[in-house]
Amino acid sequence: MGDKTWLPFPVLLLAALPPVLLPGAAGFTPSLDSDFTFTLPAGQKECFYQPMPLKASLEIEYQVLDGAGLDIDFHLASPEGKTLVFEQRKSDGVHTVETEVGDYMFCFDNTFSTISEKVIFFELILDNMGEQAQEQEDWKKYITGTDMLDMKLEDILDPIIKIASDVQLRLHLGIHQQHQVQTKQKWAHTNSA
């Protein structure tokens, strides 16, 4: 496991272009957002590294989608290795930091679990990235198919809750109708006697 996982942001192609060919690139500070879902086996830890410029904003939002307890340990460290955030057994979290130049490390740790793997969704929102933002956004045009599925737990739960509500309504309606039929049968039986 000790390998570093670098997030995919190819910048060589646009970095070679002169600024004249990128009108307006320095005129605003766009934000980048990327999201990922992965499975973390029991007893394992997975770390990701995000290079950041000076005075940008790094926001990390995570959520455990599946696995016993729906919990994970989370660790965010600065380029110098200083712990910025450390949470234990949380199901979700949102953290924002103003950055220094360097590689920020964030880890999801499931070493406390001996049986249950976890499915983890996380989203990175990078603000004030300057010219790097557009360069880093270009990698998305090369990804096709299921790689671009953006699905959160809320996206799955909304239709399920609607269906469950509909089923519950139909159940209550059925019970009410059954009660009415039984009442009519009682009245019909008592009136015929």
Automatic annotation (TrEMBL):
Main localization (coarse): endoplasmic reticulum
Domain annotation GOLD: ranges: 45-126
Annotated keywords: Endoplasmic reticulum, Membrane, Protein transport, Signal, Transmembrane, Transmembrane helix, Transport
Signal peptide: 1-27
GO cellular component: endoplasmic reticulum membrane; endoplasmic reticulum-Golgi intermediate compartment membrane; Golgi apparatus
Pfam families: EMP24_GP25L (PF01105)
Protein's cellular compartments: Endoplasmic reticulum membrane; Endoplasmic reticulum-Golgi intermediate compartment membrane; Golgi apparatus, cis-Golgi network membrane; Membrane
Family matches, as SMART domains: EMP24_GP25L
Record membrane topology: Single-pass type I membrane protein
Entry's Gene Ontology BP terms: protein transport
Family of this protein: Belongs to the EMP24/GP25L family.
PANTHER family, per the entry: TRANSMEMBRANE EMP24 DOMAIN-CONTAINING PROTEIN
Listed name of the protein: Transmembrane p24 trafficking protein 5
The organism's taxonomic lineage, starting at the top: Eukaryota, Metazoa, Chordata, Craniata, Vertebrata
